[in-house]
Amino acid sequence: MPQQRFPKVEILNITPHFIQFILSETDTSMANALRRIMIAEVPTLAIDLVEYAENSSVLNDEYIAHRLGLIPIRYTPEGSLKGGDCHTAFLPHRECVCFDRCLRCSVEFELDVNFDKFNPTRPDQERDLPLTVTSRNLISNNTLVAPAHFLSEEEQDESHDEGISIVKLGPGQHLKLKAFARMGISKEHAKWCPVAVATYRFWPIITINQEACNMLTLEQKQELVDACPDRILELDEITGNLVAVENAYEMATFTEDLKVAQNAMKKRPEDDDFVRVVQSTDRFVFSVESTGAMDAEEILMSALRVLKDRLNYLAAEVEKLKD
Q: Is pTM beyond 0.90 here?
């Protein structure tokens, strides 16, 4: 019988839109499952239907609908500031008992921008420029749901627009529509994907053979330090020994040049390596960046919930087969 495992999560870095953590005491099957769930099975809201009243812009209806669908829609639970998991607040559209749509399965956004009406309110130096319609112009009928205009305050400060650009309007042009956001998962369409990046790397195990290194000169040790492009080694200023840098786990990705350099220093090919770098098989460094639809922390928690639900379902089905 396989040995029971108790996976652990250790947070290294966390911000509203980014999280880096270590998943340990498990194997690649669990790491891959967690990564794929974050990408494809965490439910979010996205615009899925657009009804046009007027569109005299340079872009056709389908193009604008596609751009609207890719705007991250953020659900913020009442009493919270985090972009959270919407699975308890909304029903999947196909499971709702309503005839077409309702507040339980969809969120309605209205957009009505007329260049000729809006232009007189702009500063004098901007009135000859096209008017940019952004996600700020989408008005939601649900106070807990709104477009995620920016990932952070830094991004907002650097942006030239007030939100995510949708289309530019010129004199005489008018865009009026209703857009309906529904809950879904990225397995159905990429617009429901909550992550921009979800990757993991194997934790590097760096072993320094001090006994063998004592046979090297300081110049040779420095050559080993310089040979590795990732700069995972340094010389101790007091002892002159080779040591791994403090954040070596973040940088150890390519060590082939280090192998070549130390092979050239060996007296015999069968001699032990001075420095050995191998990948851990039970420790993984995850990096997850949100699109803005959910906080990165909430994406991780939601993915763990989905994984737990799937395992519970599998266990129930196995018990049925036993009966």
A: no
